[in-house]
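Schema walk-through. Below, the input block comes first and the output block second. Nothing else is stored per chain. Lengths vary across the set, and this one has 179 residues.
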Amino acid sequence: MRKLNMALVAGMLVSFLAHAIMGSMRLLGGDSAPVAAVAWVTLALAAAHVVVTTVLTAQTLHARRRSGAGYFRDNKLFWIRRISGFAILIPLVMHLVIFRSANADVYRLQVFTAGRMISQILLVLAIALHVLTNIRPALIGLGIKDNKAFAVDLLLVLSVLLLMFAAAFAVYYVRWAAV
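--- output ---
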C-alpha cells in the first residue's frame, strides 16, 4: 500500500506541476495546452492519495491503540503531515468552484474577489506546507539515496514555482479588479 502511495505521490507531483504551470500561464494572459485535462488527472491522483493515506493513518492509529503506546505529543510531525494534507481540501474545493469553466475551449475572466484570491493563496501555502513536511519521507519512499542534497534542490525549484503560482493569482486578481 505504501508503494502505491509513493507512485500516486510521484504522479500527482508531476501532474500538479504541469497543471499549475499551464494554469499560471493562462492566468497571466498566455494560452496553454488544455489545463482541464491535466487538472482532472491531478484531482483523480489526489483523491486516490487521500484514500490510501487515510487507510494507512487508520492502520497506524489502530496499531498504536493495540500497543498501548500512542506517544501523541512525540509524534507532532506525523500529525502536521496529516492535518496539512486535509487542510488542502477546503481551498482545493474552492479552487474547483472558482476556476470551473462551462466552455473548455474558451477561458473567460471569472469574478475574482479578494476572498477568492485569499483562498487561492491559502491553497498555495497549504500545498507548500504539506510538501515541505513530507519531502524527506517521499524521497526515501521513492528510493532516492542522497535525499538531503536532492531535497534542497527540489525545495528550491518548488519554492520558485509556488511563488510564480501565487504571483499569477495576484496578477489575475489585479486584472479582475481593474475591469
